[in-house]
Amino acid sequence: xxxxxxRITFAPVAMCRLRxxxxxQMLKYIIRRLYLTFPVIVAVIFLVFTMGFxxxxxxxxxxxxxxxxxxxxxxxxxxxxNYGLDRPFLIxxxxxxxQLGQGDFGRSLVTRKPVIESIGATLPVTMQLSIWAFVxxxxxxxxxxxxxxxxxxxxxxxxxxxxxxxxxxTPHFVIAPIxxxxxVIILKLxxxxxxxxxxxxxxAFLPSLLLGTWPxxxxxxxxxxxxxxxxxxxxxxxxxxxxxxxxxxxTRHILRNAMLPVVTQLGLLLNGLIVGSVFIERLFAxxxxxxxxVVSVNRRDYPLIVGTTIIATMFxxxxxxxxxxxxxxxxxxxxxx
Length: 337
Prior knowledge:
Elements: H1 2-54, H2 59-64, H3 73-83, H4 89-101, H5 115-150, H6 155-169, H7 172-186, H8 205-213, H9 216-231, H10 234-241, H11 246-275, H12 278-283, H13 289-298, H14 302-330
Helix pairs in contact: 1-14, 5-6, 5-8, 5-9, 5-11, 5-13, 5-14, 6-9, 9-11, 10-11, 11-14, 13-14
């Protein structure tokens, strides 16, 4: 009796210790991953800074145009000293790293505005647009992939996969004008969706729809392949033999095991939505992050190019970290090694 009471008393203590150990393991894993991503970010900064330093074109000429060619050489040299461009490459790179450590991304060569201000004004637009596109892509892609897998090699399966592939194969510059002509001019269902008034304004609907349907085929096919692989497992056959409803079998037994590759793909697609929304933003006159990247490259605005590249790299690293942390939740067999 005493031994049984002791086991009952100490069971909650053991569970608390187990949860505490798992939390410490997760914290160590996050710190280790962040530590390992730091050299990646520094390497990207170094490569982009090097390409900007040795690329064709003088930043001073880009800033002042043809007027600098008629200026006195001493004035030009003074301007270069003022911008810090007369120093060796490694010194400039070290100074830039010190500025980044203080949260300073430098100033644009063209507008002379701080780079962080330009990024802060445009990045929220693209993030809000990408959130709607990601929700649409996930809410449509995962159920359609499951439906196609449960009806594999039927007309419904071919219709779902074929339609998704057609959307994938058709460029944005073809679908967007067709939708604009159909919805705005012919049917007159919506006003011209140009400009940005927030993610909850109707103007965000059509850009989000176009941005989210293009990678839809990847989610559908990845989900379909994962579900088909799990359908042949013994535990699924056992669940079906017990007479469980299809909804229970799909939600409790199939999805949890089939979603690992899908989650990986969704993390990669989210990066593509944030960085790859250039055409959508330009088509609908949206002041987003993708448009800022294009403008910085066209103007050869090197501080702005480096700043946008750093932010894009941090998104890639952050999304990969989130995906790795979701793995143990979906599949307890995955260990945080």
